[in-house]
Structure formats: C-alpha cells, structure tokens
Amino acid sequence: MIIAATIAYSPLLRQALTMNTHTNDARPRPEIGARLDQLCLQSPDPKRLASFFERVYDMQVRSLPGGLIECAAAQRRVLVTQGTANRVAFVGYAFPDAAALSDQRAAVAARGVALLANPSPLFDEGAFAVRDPDGNQVVFGIRPLETVASEPLPGRLQHAVFRTTRLDEMVDFYEQKLRFIPSDKVRDGEGVMRACFLRTDIEHHALAIFRSPETRLDHFSFETTDWEHIRRWADDFSVKRVPIFWGVGRHGPGNDLFFMVKDPDDNLVEISAEIEQVPSDRVMGTWPHEERTLNVWGNAIMRS
Q1: Do residues 278 and 174 both lie within one domain?
Q2: For a tag site, which of 12, 177, 289, 291 has the least CB within 10 Å?
C-alpha cells in the first residue's frame, strides 16, 4: 500500500511544481463563487491579540458592538471576541451579489441544514449562518465594500484550516451540505483520509480540514502576490522581531509558497503566495500522508 501511494504521488507532484497558477478557462465554474472574507477569533485576551495584528500586520483596530474588536487592512478582516483560545466564533464567506447568496441559502436549506441568524456585524441583514459538526459557525453574506486603503504589503485573507477528531463527518458536511468542492485529499497507506482541501471558487482551497487528536483552529492565511512579497513580509517580521515558526516552504496541495508565525494565543498565521488556480474540469487529486505532501521543500507539521 505504501509503495502504491508513493508511485501515485509522483505525477501529482510533477504537475503541481510545473503548473501555471493562472487559468483562462472560460467554461462554467462548478463552485459556489464565494471567498473567505472574514473570521472571528476567540481569545482569552482579545485586546492583546488585537494589538498583535495591529503591530505585526498593520491592521487598523476599532471596537464594535457586542464586545467585538475588528482588525482590518485592505482585503483582510479579523474579528476578535472573548472566548477560548484556538477556536473561532465564526468564519465568513462573501458572495459578489445578492443572487448568488440567495442561491446558496436555498441550496443549503434544501439539504436540510438549519439556517441561523447572522452573527457578523460586517455583513448586512441578508446574511445567514450554519453550524458545522464541530460547532463552528459558517456565515454567508455579500462582500462588503472595501473601506481600508491599500497597504504596502498586500495580504488578502484567503483560507482557514481546522483540526478535527471527526474528519469524515466534517468533509461530508462541507461537501454535501454547503457545496464546497474537494480539490485534493490526503490519505495514508491504509486509505484513511487524513486531510481535505476544499474550494469555493477558482482558488485551490478556501478551507482545509485535518484529522487530529484535537479539535481547534489550525491556521488561517493571508495571500500575498508573489515570491518577492513573501520575502518582504519575512523581512518586515524580522524587523518587528516576530520569528518564523514554519517555512519558508511550498505546499504540495495548492502549490503555494508559504511561511507561518504564531500569534499570542498560539494560532498559526500564514503568509502565502501563488496558490493554484483550478481549471473547471480538474479532477480531485490524492496525496500520501507524509511530510513531503505538506512541504515539498522540507519538514512539515503533521497533525496526525
């Protein structure tokens, strides 16, 4: 089994490392057409965590009703609220218009998922939420107008990653109930799924889920433009005395360049670039459960 998995891996790796990350595919897209727009972190010390994002990521901080703190820069919004570290209060996916949001609402309701009130002050009254098997709230709304000026170091909030003890149930919920599409799955030598990368638009993943002994937020990612900006972010962190915890490397699934640091609550925060742009007819890939899958350049954090 292990030999077979390794042989199957080689063509995928060659494809990923030589892939043009942009596509002019004009065929109809199968995805729902949303992008990760915001997430709300729980923290035992919200002010400390918000100060970290203000200092390290050049985000503007303001207080919102309900005890929330917003940290915002161009194309990246992180909310912080009182709660348990390494958990989210919600993640928010934004559609470009009301018609797309209405389609998602109808499709999710038709699949028997209970629709909840919108918890995000950044979405309007048309937004709605659902709760996944681990209790995370997932909010769908319409993309707000950008109100923050562009920054010298671009970094768009692009994906979030969860660890879970019930991977199969979580993947089934996002795929079958919320209509996220698996781009790649990671399986061990016995065929057991260890991770899944799911997309909501042309980008390889807007959500990833890892099998783990614990249930928590794994990381979230700010997508910058290219290798040059990966270097500039790393240099900026060095000046601010924030050490790199993992990377610089390149993921197998998604083919993106990356490095990660830790925030004061021990959340991993990623800077990434050049994530794969998925053709409309791309077949889901399968990768082996090994360090090289998560970092083709070197060591990796293995969640299970």
Answers
A1: yes
A2: 291
Give the pTM.
0.90
Q: What tokens were used for 135?
A: 């209790």
CA distance 240 to 242: 6
The total number of structural domains that make up the chain: 2
Same domain, 170 and 281: yes
Q: How far apart are the first and last CA of the chain?
A: 19
Residue 25: its H or E element: none
Which residues, other chains included, contact 256 with Cβ-Cβ below 8 Å and sequence gap of 6+? 204, 223, 250, 272, 273, 274, 275, 276
The range of the structural domain enclosing residue 198 comes to 2-17+153-294
C-alpha span between 260 and 246 (Å, rounded): 5
Point out the domain boundary residue: 96, 122, 142.
Answer: 142
Looking at the fold, whether 132 and 157 belong to one and the same domain comes out as no
**Pairing status of strand 128-131 against strand 137-142:** antiparallel
DSSP per residue over 140-189, as a string?
Answer: EEEPPPP-S---SS--EEEEEEEEES-HHHHHHIIIIIS--EEEEEEE-T
- Return the CATH number at 43: 3.10.180.10
- Which tens digits make up the pLDDT trace of 224-269? 999 999 999 999 999 999 999 999 999 999 999 999 999 999 999 9
